[in-house]
Amino acid sequence: xxxxxxxxxxxxxxxxxxxxxxxxxxxxxxLAAGVSGLITGGIVGEGPTLTxxxxxxxxxxxxxxxxxxVPIIAMTGTNGTATTIAATCAAHEAGASAxxxxxxxxxxxxxxxxxxxxxxxxxxxxxxxxxGNAPRRTNVALAPETINRLGQLPSIFALVDESEDAGHQRAxxxxxxxxxxxxxxxxxxxxxPGLRPPRACICxxxxxxPRLCVEIWRQRLAGPAALLRNxxxxxxxxxxxxxxxxxxxxxKYAVSLLxxxxxxxxxxxxxxxxxxSAAAIRVAVAALARLPLHQxxxxx
Length: 300
Fold this sequence. Notes:
This protein has a domain at 4-211: Aldolase class I (TIM Barrel), CATH 3.20.20. Helix 4 runs parallel beside helix 6, helix 6 (144-150) packs parallel to helix 7 and helix 10 (249-258) packs across helix 11. The chain is 43% helix and 13% strand. The longest helix has 15 residues, at 52-66. By secondary structure, it is α/β, with parallel strands linked by helices.
């Protein structure tokens, strides 16, 4: 199920509701560019501002639009076990292929609490589950020992690790061993020496440059000598510009530059990029368009 580039989809809005036509068009452009999977409802998709009904609708739209061509992964993690179970059940009923569960945020549970949280979800929902370890966002990190225990649960099959400490990354990779597939947090992340490469990557920039992200990931797996270095450098510049604003404000603005029918509107408390950030994003997007592998426009 997990192989290649998975894109966490941005969510277009029309007034106070979802722009379903733009969402479906965006998916078609991603699939035409060769992405391997779609993710709905995460931070990039403004998941915290979506109602449960909207989250479920986005999953159904992705499932209907993809029509079996790629797997659909739903971000269903919350900081409450009961709400996460409810969201994951809804994702299952909507046709999601798997659910991605971030560690509970804000309340900072212990390792015992984290294990009990994920175990309860795994026992309550008959759906493949991916663990999300994002300590910079959640202020809590899965310990290798907890990963090892969770890996014994049949429905938990993969781990996305966003920790920045190389030692912790290596320990988590060792804990995954042969049982859990590892997923990189983006297509540019260097591989740790001595470890098998991750099975897949999650790349927010693929919303903007899907073909380039797919090619960079393919060449990264082929080895450093084959890496499309100009493409990586251009993506680095783009990511720096996107990081000037809270995610996904910059991503949605960049997509709107490439697809005029895709509106950059965000839901509060997020606001659209300021003038300086917008200018930096325009420069980065224009630089991408000049690459030999320039099919970054979602309208192409």
